[in-house]
Each structure stands twice: as structure tokens, then as C-alpha cells.
Amino acid sequence: MTVENMGPGEPRKICITAAKLATGAFDDSPDQDCKRTVTSSTASSMDVTETCARKADPGVTGTGQLHLQVVSPESVKGTLATKLSMTGRSMTMNGTLTAKFVSADCGNIK
Question: Is 75 part of a structural domain of the chain?
């Protein structure tokens, strides 16, 4: 499934495969070392906990909680709460997202 993240700024497309959906690995970043745990999953919602460290600087870490809720067969909404830590300082970010089904074929979208 291909979804479009509709947040502030430019929308972006990501490809959600069955394997990514099963593990909660929706948006892998090559410069991050992340561990994801699906803490709850039903036919209509999913909760994922993620802990990441930057590969080039393991002192930069982040933890996040993602909650996704199915709105309809073609749309999902969610919330994200993230805490970043870097060189003794921390920052908390909260956000919301909406996503919609675009195509059954991801094409060249990773």
C-alpha cells in the first residue's frame, strides 16, 4: 500500500508493504539504528514503540510512540509522541498525521 503523509509542508509518499506493516517499520532511515516493537495491533488500530540512535553519533537518541487508527478502508489517522536526546539536552515533539491509500503498486517509492 502506498500512503501519503499529509503534514505541514510538502506531502510525501512512502510505501507500506505487508512486512513493514507487521513490524511497524514504516519509514526506515539509513542513518538511524532503530528498534521497533508493535505493542498492540487490531484490525482497526496499531501502537508502535520505537527507539533509535544515529549511526554516526550514538549520543543522539530518540524514543517514540506511534498510534494509528483506521478511519476507512482508504484512510488512516495517527498521533506521534517523540523524545529526542542529544548531548545532555532533550526535546519533545508531538504530531498528528493523516494518510490515504494512493495505489496498490508502490512503483519506485521505497
Answer: yes
Q: pLDDT band at 5, cuts 50/70/90?
A: very low
Instruction: Report yes or no: 4 and 102 within 8 Å, Cβ to Cβ.
Output: yes
Average predicted confidence (pLDDT) for the chain = 80
| DSSP sequence for the chain | -EEEE--SSS-EEEE--HHHHHHT--S--TTEEEEEEEEEE-SSEEEEEEEEEESS-TT-EEEEEEEEEEEETTEEEEEEEEEEEETTEEEEEEEEEEEEB--S--TT--
Domain contains 25: yes
- 107 belongs to a structural domain: no
User: Domain residues for 18?
Assistant: 2-100
Per-residue model confidence as pLDDT tens digits over 19-42: 766 666 666 666 778 888 889 989
Cα–Cα–Cα angle for 73, 76, 82, rounded to 5 degrees? 160
Q: Summarize pLDDT for 85-98 with one digit per residue, the tens.
A: 988 899 998 888 88
